[in-house]
Amino acid sequence: MEREWLERDYYKDLGVSPSASSKEISDAYRKLAKKYHPDNNQGDETARDNFTKVATAYEVLHKPDKRKEYDEAREMMRTGAGAGRMFGGGPSAGSSSDGFSFDMNDLLGNLGGMFGGGAGAGNGRRYRPTSGGPRRGQDLDADLYLDFLDAVHGVTTTVAVHGDAPCTMCGGNGARPGTAPEPCPNCGGTGSIALDQGLFSVSQPCSACSATGVYIDDPCPSCRGGGVEQRTRNVTIRVPAGVKDGQRIRVKARGGAGANGGPRGDLYVTVHVKAHERFGRSGDNLTVTMPITYWEAALGTKVSVPTLDDDVTIKIPAGTSSGKKFRVKNRGVKKKSGYGDLIVRVEVAVPAPSQMSEEETSLLEQLRDTSTFRPRAQAEESV
Ligand SMILES: [Zn+2]
Ligand SMILES: [Zn+2]
């Protein structure tokens, strides 16, 4: 609450005038608190934020001594009067007994920015009430669920991202809609001040604008000048062909919005690829399993195999064991240069009794009785 205390217009938050009576303040609070109460607005973040805003404003305004402190501080900021009056040692400065306190360093930091030397000093101008100047946005994470073929071919899609976003009301520039940020008059918009030190000229960050170079006369009421708000937004991303399950894609500058004109963070998207009924993946290789009969395995054959585009025919040589793999070059998944391979695994399928005629059964029995093939011979010998 400490820093906010000076930056926020609590009268505006409650929708009352600065001369409102305590009854008007209580009435306004009751009405708004009911409207935004979390119980009446399940899961609505905006309502929750508004509820907090209203409660905070009421917290300050409904106690006469706190309200007086607040009014004095606002007046001082408005007129740009010296800080001395504020810190003159009155009983209200610093922390007070009812639990309301503000941090002296924060306050001094703010005042340094607002009343710092040069053109800005004491002339009644109000500067963007920043603390620390531009701040890079957060790096954000998101999950993306892709169909198998979309991952193979690449796709343009959207992903829901929750975090800092440019303020909807002002578009992120921090100025009240209808107004625009202007170059800081103290530094001419450069964000730094050149100090003439005889032979040397050194520059230091402009304290009036916290080195942002921007002067906002009337801050956006929604983001209070920072240009950032929390929400969920859909980000369109181009997923490259061949992404793998579990892969993390970095999307530069699509993460959290930076505050006070700072750069955006990055977005990291973790890809989850759904299974395909026919194909599998092994890195850049595509895998597929083809059933063959045992006479095809023993005598050899040609089988037609599906790929990502047209079918290919592969030759199964005589004497192929179940589980043997065949490689079809460049028919796999797109990789950095070229394509992976298609790996075809053959599997000998055995008919169920219901799938065999009497004649087939009889032929197999003949084969059993005449064949000299003994695949377990070695195993039997060693027993
Ligand atoms: Zn400046
Ligand atoms: Zn805004």
Describe this structure in words.
This protein has 383 residues and is α+β, with helices and mostly antiparallel strands. The protein has 3 domains: 2-115, Helix Hairpins, CATH 1.10.287; 140-273, Ribbon (Chaperone, DNAj Protein, Chain A), CATH 2.10.230; 280-381, HSP40/DNAj peptide-binding domain (Sandwich). Helix content is 27%, strand content 23%. The chain has helices at 2-7, 10-14, 22-36, 45-61, 64-79, 83-86, 104-115, 148-153, 294-299, 358-370, 377-381, and strands spanning 140-146, 155-166, 182-183, 192-197, 200-205, 214-215, 228-239, 248-251, 267-273, 280-282, 285-292, 301-305, 312-316, 325-328, 342-348. The strands form 6 sheets. It has a 4-stranded mixed β-sheet with strand order 10-11-15-14. A 3-stranded mixed β-sheet has the order 1-9-8. A hairpin with a 2-residue loop joins β4 (192-197) and β5 (200-205). α3 packs antiparallel against α4. 25% of the residues are buried. Residues 82-131 have low confidence and may be disordered.
